[in-house]
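To: structure desk
From: M.T.
Subject: fold request, one chain
Message: Could you run this one when you get a chance? Sequence is below, nothing fancy, just the single chain.
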Amino acid sequence: MARYDEVTGKMKVPSICQSARASSPLPGFLLFFLTCYVRSMESAQFKVVGPDRPVTAVVGEEIVLPCHLAPRMSAENMAVTWFRSHLSPFVHRYSDGKDQYEQQMPEYQRRTELLKDGLSQGNVTLKILHVRLSDEGRYSCFVQNGLFFEEAVLELKVAASGSAPHVSVEDYQDGGIRVVCRTAGWYPEPQVTWRDLNGQAFPSASQTNTQEANGLYGAQTSAIIMENSNQNLSCLVRNTRLSQEKESTLFYISDPFFPKVNPWMASLGVTLVVLLGSFALSVYLFRIKGKLTGEVEKHLSTIGKLTGEVGTLQRELAWRRDIVCPGLGSAAPPVLEANVTLDPDTAHPRLVLSEDGKRVRWEWTWQPLPDTPERFDTVPCVLGREGFTSGRHCWEAEMGGGRDWGVGVARESVSTKGELSLSPQGGIWGVRQWGDHFLSLTGPAALLSLSPPSRIRVCLDCDRGQVTFIDAGTEAPIFTFPPGSLPGERIRPWILMWDTKTLRLSP
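Reply: Done. Structure tokens follow.
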């Protein structure tokens, strides 16, 4: 029944909910529940919408998992839970207007973020930092408003782009030359193919894929190049999930290096056989006549000369092979052991250098240093005093503990202020340990398929424009920036330190 409102001066008609509550207790409650509560439930209904195809993430980078409400409405006062197979423990939870971490899965701690800028529009998107292989799988986006809830399921696929393929000449096989292509640090298993100069597929002789302890894949494939075949080959490695390819080319191999019967070598072999036969006969004859010593020495001298000629021929062939196929032989400029010291004028205020410039340590305390143009002010880096423009130079860096450091080289004009791109585009060529990951700073950084060593040798070849990193303890190669990677300007040693206790330089 309508009644008069003394405050507004108007007639006020009670709603159906008020009428139901004013009636008898039990029927009134049922009517109230069926009309008002159910109506409020219907008004709060929504759907949770996720992507209709898998989302692909790159190992070591960050990924955004999209999810939103339909129709669009504010989710600021709702409960949002991202989970894998069970609601608890969860990947990330938001409720009561803030993030909840009490029951978060340990492997996602400090790696997740709900993007709250879009909550008012119904966006409940999740960001995952430092993606790992274990992050791959199905995720549920669960949203609850009171007693009403909905969820959407999406799939995350993880990928890793490995090292550029390394092609080398290995041996003679089946009348031709056997070449091998090796690569590592891929996920999932990469596709590896040989291609000729015209881009056509070239048959492989063998191929092996291996999975390392860190879950990444490496591959090795070989091919046989015959003398009259197309001898310009390239090895192509492709990540099907990222549609990304890396390729390396084997330069032309000259005909003289293919196995064949060389008349000069044949005559040399015959001569050796004759001389050895003559030597045996002479020993027999002169043993009878008692004149063994002088003749034996004469024949041994002749055989020594022939052996020297064979060694000279082998060295000449090795030299020619290095000219035709750079990097396969041993001919190279001499390597100079660089006596590298660190430049205090470039050191970040949290880096403390020893007096001789050979050691550096990271400190929490900000050092009171002048903010000069050449000093790093954001990223804790330091450059070497010495710079190189020509020749080959090597030095070693020994890490004294810690899980975040980097070594390498930088161009003279590298930016020291503000954000620093740790890549060749930013003027830095190096390797870095970042937590459990060991990376080559190739832009984007690529995972390396070996554990971070405690001592690294840095070898800079200014004339070829390349830099190589070697495990100083095992002499195993770590990574090489290919020829032509470095600019034609002065290059200086480069160090990055976050939580490493000490780092020492030596020739």
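Reply (cont.): Confidence is low (pLDDT under 50) at residues 1-24, 34-43, 315-331. Let me know if you need anything else for the meeting.
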